[in-house]
Amino acid sequence: MVSSKDAIFVHFSKELVHIEAPKLKEAGITEAECEAMIAEMEKHAKGNGDPFLVVPFMRSHTAPEFKDVWPPMPWVLRKVAVPYLLAKRYSG
Questions:
Q1: For residues 33 and 36, what is the distance between their CA atoms, to the nearest angstrom?
Q2: Are residues 13 and 24 in the same domain?
Q3: What string of pLDDT tens digits covers the 92 residues of the chain?
Q4: Degrees (nearest 5) of the Cα angle 41, 69, 43?
Q5: Which of 33, 48, 63 is the last residue of a domain?
Q6: Taking the complete model, does pTM exceed 0.70, yes or no?
Q7: Which domain holds residue 60?
Q8: How far apart are CA 25 and CA 57, in angstroms?
Q9: H helix or E strand, kind and range, residue 26
Q10: What's the Cα-to-Cα distance from 92 to each of 37, 42, 64, 82, rounded to whole Å?
């Protein structure tokens, strides 16, 4: 599993080159089109994601060097929802 994780991160890092601003401008994608794509992606994420599952998963699977980009988790989530609701529900 570790090797596939490493391969995927290498792959994603290489793909970032394809979506840099100069490449998007070169492809003729306007700022308005980018904003529309982002809005559509947010709409999809909000409509299909379970925040009680997705948010803790993303926070717990963020590499340590990037954890400071997340805002502090409210105490009710950290002390009540995660250990008593989510842990029991998704423990298997």
A1: 5
A2: yes
A3: 456 667 777 877 888 777 888 888 888 989 999 899 989 988 998 888 877 777 777 777 888 888 787 788 788 877 887 778 777 766 66
A4: 15
A5: 48
A6: no
A7: 50-92
A8: 34
A9: helix 21-26
A10: 36, 29, 26, 15
